[in-house]
Design a protein that fits this description.
Elements lengths: L1 E3 L4 E3 L27 H28 L13 H20 L5 H22 L3 H26 L6 H21 L5 H33 L2
Antiparallel strand pairs: 1-2
Helix pairs in contact: 1-2, 2-3, 3-4, 4-5, 4-6, 5-6
The structure holds zinc ion (ZN).
Zinc ion binds next to loops.
């Protein structure tokens, strides 16, 4: 019989983790209670279907752009299909990463956020709205990522969310430092972003520090 050291319960079957607290169970596994899930198979069928769809779209785009010379009005010299291919490649890579087990939610959210943002900046460069992107879209979406990571820091018990909040904080401060030395004013969204990231990081340290202390007390009966 397997046991959870934290909940002080015995768990039948061959579960890896405690159904109550998700801690690793110890002890010898019993006979399996549940049949092996078939989710894996369905997922791989879905995965193949979307992979095929991505290839169809990518090849259709490339041939429309290069062979049939289908262009976007006002941007006749932009090879839009290469940008599309770039998005699809990264999307595909992202989907592969999401299926990898053992990745924390903060890490998933933050990596999806930063990759999407880099692609967006590249795209905006070719379509000539990169100034607007850098001054408004990047800081505003960074605010979204910071808030998400803060919420995750509050609810995620694994405790690996703080480092992502710290990354957010550093990224939020960089433009201010650069623009300070160049002698230019920082756009308002960036200032808002910087202030928010500092506040939420300190907030997370205060709240998170408290729960960490609680956990030590609970587990060691201090
Ligand atoms: Zn437990």
């Amino acid at each position: 019989m397997k046991k959870c050291l934290y909940c002080k319960i015995e768990v039948g079957g061959d579960l890896e983790r405690c159904p109550l607290c998700q801690s690793k169970l110890v002890g010898e596994p019993g006979e399996a209670y549940f049949p092996k899930p078939t989710g894996q198979q369905r997922r791989s069928k879905f995965y193949k279907a979307q992979l095929f769809a991505v290839w169809v779209v990518m090849i259709a785009g490339l041939s429309a752009d290069f062979l049939f010379k289908v262009k976007i009005p006002r941007f006749e010299n932009v090879h839009w299909s290469l940008l599309l291919a770039m998005w699809l490649f990264v999307l595909e890579f992202g989907i592969m990463r999401q299926f990898k087990p053992g990745t924390g939610s903060a890490r998933k959210v933050t990596s999806v956020f930063f990759t999407t943002l880099v692609l967006f900046v590249i795209t905006s460069y070719f379509f000539n709205f990169w100034r607007f992107t850098l001054a408004w879209i990047v800081p505003i979406s960074l605010i979204g990522d910071i808030i998400t990571n803060f919420v995750l820091a509050m609810i995620d018990k694994k405790g690996n969310t703080m480092s992502y909040l710290l990354i957010n904080l550093l990224v939020a401060i960089i433009p201010y430092i650069i623009l300070f030395f160049v002698g230019k004013e920082t756009p308002i969204p960036w200032i808002a972003c910087m202030i928010l990231s500092v506040i939420l990081f300190i907030g997370a340290v205060i709240f998170k520090g408290h729960t960490v202390l609680n956990e030590i007390q609970r587990r060691f009966n201090v």
